[in-house]
């Protein structure tokens, strides 16, 4: 009996000594997919409704707008489908494949196209005048010399050859206003910049009504800017500083 007790004590002694060594061979804990569920359902981005613009724009007819809305909804649908695919590929460990990289690039293109169209439609409306005392007008005068000089530069930027967008941006570094050209949807975007006014200059924005007369479309666009929306974007940014 005494020998048995001594044996137990010795076993405890060696177990305590060896336990840290045993722990080195323990498996690294892994999550159980049954315990931590993953998102596999389709991701649906909701399209915005801009039908309130119908019948209220001068020089941009309803048929053109309806076609443009349909195209915008295509961007929303594609962005949703691509985002769903990317999530599923990551969950299946395929995020280092060439296919994943190609889809990632396409997703950014579709997503940017969706967002830019929303900003474009949102700054259209029958409120084409900017109040003389509006802080945005004062800022335009400060940075461009006058509203007319800003408009001249904005229109000239819109006539650059290519397909894309013209955006009145406020610089995140200096606060200055600049009119910039964005190729397609995702080239030349200003990181951190605040888009204040967005004009679509892809052919689909005007060709059914203006043919190749981009200048005529730009003139119509300038008469259909909702300056209340544009001014609010500027003032919201100023108040957030």
From TrEMBL:
InterPro entries: Fe/Mn_Superoxide_Dismutase, Mn/Fe_SOD_C, Mn/Fe_SOD_N_sf, SOD_C_sf. One of its GO terms (molecular function) is metal ion binding. Pfam families: Sod_Fe_C. Residues 136-233 form the Manganese/iron superoxide dismutase C-terminal domain. Coiled coil: none annotated. Keywords: Metal-binding, Oxidoreductase. The keyword Oxidoreductase applies. SUPFAM superfamilies: Fe,Mn superoxide dismutase (SOD), C-terminal domain, Fe,Mn superoxide dismutase (SOD), N-terminal domain. Its EC number is 1.15.1.1. PANTHER family: SUPEROXIDE DISMUTASE 2, SUPEROXIDE DISMUTASE [MN], MITOCHONDRIAL. This is superoxide dismutase. It comes from Simkania negevensis (strain ATCC VR-1471 / DSM 27360 / Z).
């Amino acid at each position: 009996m005494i020998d048995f007790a001594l044996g137990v004590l010795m076993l405890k002694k060696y177990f305590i000594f060896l336990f840290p060594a045993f722990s080195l061979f323990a498996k690294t804990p892994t999550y159980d997919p049954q315990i931590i569920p993953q998102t596999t359902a389709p991701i649906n981005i909701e399209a915005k409704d801009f039908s309130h613009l119908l019948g209220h724009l001068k020089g941009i007819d309803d048929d053109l707008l309806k076609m443009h809305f349909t195209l915008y909804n295509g961007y929303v649908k594609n962005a949703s489908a691509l985002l769903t695919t990317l999530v599923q590929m990551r969950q299946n460990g395929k995020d280092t494949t060439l296919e994943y990289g190609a889809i990632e690039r396409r997703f950014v293109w579709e997503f940017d196209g969706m967002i830019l169209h929303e900003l474009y439609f949102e700054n259209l409306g029958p409120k084409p005048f900017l109040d003389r005392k509006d802080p945005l007008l004062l800022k335009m005068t400060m940075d461009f010399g006058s509203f007319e000089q800003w408009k001249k530069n904005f229109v000239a930027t819109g006539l650059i050859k290519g397909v894309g967008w013209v955006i009145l941006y406020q610089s995140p570094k200096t606060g200055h206003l600049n009119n910039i050209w964005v190729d397609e949807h995702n080239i030349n975007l200003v990181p951190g910049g605040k888009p204040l006014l967005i004009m679509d200059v892809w052919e689909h924005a005007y060709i059914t009504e203006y043919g190749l007369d981009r200048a005529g479309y730009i003139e119509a666009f300038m008469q259909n800017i909702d300056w209340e929306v544009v001014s609010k974007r500027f003032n919201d940014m100023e108040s957030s500083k």
